[in-house]
Write a structure and sequence with these properties.
MetI-like fold; transport; D-Maltodextrin-Binding Protein, domain 2; 19 helices; alpha/beta; Periplasmic component/domain (HisJ); elongated; 12% strand; ArtM/GltK/GlnP/TcyL/YhdX-like; 3 domains; five-stranded mixed beta sheet; single chain; Solute-binding_3/MltF_N
Amino acid sequence: MEKKLNRAWALIIGTVLIALAILIGQSSAQADSSVASIKERGVLKVALSPDYPPFEFQSKAGGQSEDAGIDIQVAQKIAKDLGVKLQIMNMSFASVLVAVEIGKADLAIGGINPTPARRQNVAFSDYYYNGGQVFLLTKEGAKQLKKASQLSGKTIGAQSSSLQYKLAKDKYTDSKVVGMDKSSDLVLALKGKKIDAMGIEKPVAEAYIENDHSLTMIPADYNLSADETGAAIAAAKGNDELINEVNKSINEIKSQNLMKTYLKNAAHKLKDTTANTSMLHYWQYFLNGLLYTLYISVWAIIGGMILGAILSLMKMSAWKVLNWPAVSFIEVVRGTPIMVQILLVYFGLGLLINIPALTAGIIAVTLNSAAYVAEIIRGGINAVNKGQFEAAQSLGLSKKDQYRFVIFPQAIKNIWPALGNEFISIIKESSIVSIIGVTDLVYELNIVKADTYRGVAPIVVVMVIYFIVTFGLGRLLGHFERKMKYGN
């Protein structure tokens, strides 16, 4: 009973410390995004999700990969007017406003509608674009669904946390509304008949239809004003000075009719990008993603083993000053999703220390692995026969040498299969780092899907790559397991 209470207290203390770290860091986040600070460092940091053509996407025109689209040009205009360079921070759409709210990015852009709920947490500029709302359908589905009012009772898809998702939930109360992080996944669901229609902005729908002739669209029937559907740029709450500078740039875009040019440029780059949509054409994307995945996995395996061994010994210690932190850490990590941990390290710890996305991803995956490795090692040590401890003591070995020469070698044999499974899991679970913009295999998968308008082919390629890597690692681990088993 006492042990359970100690564990519960350790878990509570660990959770409170994490919450305090976030609150302390959040109080200092705003100052970094002031206009003076931006000009001093010479860089404007803009968060976006590059999987929403023609607003933002990754162009492969000329063999070089670069961020392109309407929003990229708007951001470039703002940076130029401020007299600084533009730094694009790619991440999932659900994370862009969080990045601005805590000061990780100066601005967030991406066809974002300033809803009342969003205005409570961030400040918004004037509207810079309004494309209108439509529903994307397959041509086959359009034979039965000729107007939006017929969607009642149907399954509607929309990007999670988007205006389209909220509009569909509010209006079509008797319909099932499905949210997904990526528009390309929704289109795949639409073509696979998992959803009947997809709520989306008109320019995005037109881009999909241009590149996939099996799709069509119908107007939405929301009857909304421009203020309710327009796209604006987000900054930290209270950062009125930066918002004023952004509004100056937006006013120039409107007065000089630059949006027409931006649309034309985006369409041109999108056409070049989709000229060749074969998976072979994107081999560099997949190779780059594989290298990052392996890089993250190797460091996480090494770090997880070292930290896991330390945590296991701390947890087995009779000293509470060592035992409690280890128990707290292990319970918190094992009791929370790895995606939440990655967001916490990047956005939470990033409040105190400026951590790049790749470093944050490695740290989070390493910490997650260490908690599981610690329990694997502890179980392996406890599985060693007590007689082995007594025999080592009778030989006059020190505590350190007992573990080094007698206990650990036997424990390794016991835990090797479980460790092997953990190593393979790290490779697969590291895919979640794509949510903060780390260019691993899953990140590149989403980029290729958005660029090529092909849903299944990129998924198959990435699945094959993961299988080859994990299958090869499994065989290698099995080889060493057999050598340890037979002693040769």
